[in-house]
Amino acid sequence: MDNKPQEPIHSRVELNREKHNKKKKVQIIIGIVLVLFLGLGIYAGSVYLKAKNAFDKTYDPKTAVKQDSFSGKEPFNILLLGTDTGAFGRKEVRGNSDTMILVTVNLAKKKLSLMSIPRDTMARMIGTDSFSVHKINAAYNIGGAKMAMQTTSKVLNVPIKYYISMNMGGMRKIVDGVGGVTVTPPLTFTYDGYTFTKGKTVHLNGNQALAYSRMRYDDPKGDYGRQLRQREVIMSVLEHALSFNTLKNLDSILGSVSTSLRTNLTFDSMVKISKNYRKCTNNMSSDYLHGVGAMIGDASYQVMSDRELQRTSNIVRNDLGLDSMDIDNNETYQNSMNSQFNWNSGDSNQVYYIYDPHTDELWNGDRAY
Question: What is each CA distance from 290 to 115, 250, 302, in whole angstroms?
Fold first, then answer.
């Protein structure tokens, strides 16, 4: 018997399901590209020149920051932004960032930390001419990577200088370019037409790896179980990326990167990161900003309590080697003005109001994003 999952027959229902689950794909893409970025390394000679040419095309001068003093050894944050532009017929230039993950890398601790930020998080847009509140994923659509970094930085009270944004276009080639991934399913399940058997080690291509990583509702551990499978896939990508066999597919991988990724990290900084931080991928931790469902106007949001904002800020600052600081921003201000809000009600239809901090009056601005 062939131990590879059978290729599915794509029906209209399956294609619609694929579109419905595109946001989950983006999150997996981010993890894989991140590990590939840190784990592949920059080789010498002609390969070095190919890598430089590919990554030079990803450089975004509009959000450039001075990197002359970047040694590649100090702790730093990178905001990862995942978009599905270019997929399923979407033609937006930017679109909203469906996935946002703040990555903290600390060489001294040999640690890489991932802090996921819910796309529906209520946040003040930083960098606009006037007061404006939207879901945090709209920052990228409104003001590009610069606004996304500034807004996230203000919400969590942490410094953010660098970003990497990516779309779904290069996913399949990247996974297939490293020769696929090898996994051992912890349970038996079928998802998107692929069947996986508990305890049976299989080698997956890009499409199969996505299906394996995305299933949640049939897993007794829920989202936690999905995270474990995602980590298994990511670590397998890293293992294969570090192998010599990956070099033969490097042109395909780099071609995918050059068309699907944008960043304000220079190639020289990437080389330093690749050389100095690869060991950090052996010590990865993940967390996420825990929100409470609420209605703002006619839209569903995630609002964060002061305690949760402080907890998350403390974690990231500690990973950076910074002292904790009391959170004092628009989000804590809005919480203080919503004294009627019951954080423990469990009612996601509970109303949450936005106030203009200049007047302390209700704000009725546009929340179309």
Answer: 11, 39, 8
